Amino acid sequence: MSDKTPRPQLAHLTAQLEDLRQRGTHFKLRVLDDEQAPVCTYDGKRVINLASNNYLGLCNHPKLREAAIAATKKYGVGSGAVRTIAGTMHIHMELEEKIAAFKGVEACVVFQSGFTANAGTVSSILGKEDFILSDELNHASIIDGARLSRAKIKVFRHKDIAHAEDLLKEIQHEPGRKLLITDGVFSMDGDIGPVDKLCDLADQYGAIMMVDDAHASGVLGRNGRGSVDHFHCTQRVDVQVGTLSKAIGALGGYVCGSRDLIDYLYHRARPFLFSTSHPPSVAATCIAAFDLLEIEPERIQRLWDNTNYFKQQLTAAGFDTGGRTTPASETPITPILIGDGRATMDFSRSLFQAGLMATGIAFPTVPEGKARIRTIMTSEHTREQIDQALEILITVARKMNILPA
């Protein structure tokens, strides 16, 4: 056997990759050559970027750059350990206090990612005798955390309050705690979770209320405080999860709630216990970002102005942006529904060649038959860039018979 002959132990992976190629949904990673911006360079090609989570343009904001450089000069490039051993720096505590004050809660703990924040929290606060009631379209990190907890999982139809209540009624006399959990904004369809109505159910049935606000942070609520603030439910949600990797422009996730919740997570959340803490530069950039949310609310207004214009123009052109066979988008996440996975990925590749970065999403990320181009608007796109993106979308869609010629 030569050095280049594949080992048979992983032949099943090769077969599955070949299946993806046959379906037309196999992809290669696009590589960014410069900074994350409304117009940037991927794989050497200049494109309008409608694929980034950089909602408010903070990835490359001068104040965040300055904060990162200053923290690196003062503290170095790494923290050297997990938080519970030797890796908790003053700047980590400052960030947690900043977020807690911003959210209007007692305390906060920062995780290495939004995924670990969700998975680590759900899996640590519940056990096998407990119940989790989860929206069917909740993020993968919630699903994984639920499985790791070994709790009994009940899934309610998307945003279906009556179905959620039926499930709560079924288990209300069962021993064990009940956790009711939803995304604040659903990442594939861009619709907003019914946080207020689910809080009513949690209050009525004594359930723990948890909201994953990853795509609502920096987008909804006062100065971007999220869907919990948007629905005036800060004091009714027991566990708020957010991200530092999207609108905040850096990296990480966080959990907000009571001081006892956060102290418990310090002791029991496995990603917190077994992962090295953030580099000081990342903590510093996040602190600067929360300051900007307070002093530059016009960024969020620009985001919504751009979003509303873009949605109107897509609808006028005849694109299916949700509301027919999928939930209607209510946020800067706007899907363009195609349906077939191969056609969707071909459309995405053709858009890229025409100068537009717009990601194709197919099974298993979304159900079969509901593949889509997911577009995300930012505050930093100019009207000229948006119009150019729309022109590319319409022209390519007509060529590919996605829209009538």
TrEMBL record:
Pfam families: Aminotran_1_2. It is an enzyme of class 2 (transferase). Its EC number is 2.3.1.47. GO terms for biological process: biotin biosynthetic process. Its cofactor is pyridoxal 5'-phosphate. Residues 46-392 form the Aminotransferase class I/classII large domain. Homodimer. This is 8-amino-7-ketopelargonate synthase. It comes from Edaphobacter dinghuensis. The gene is kbl.
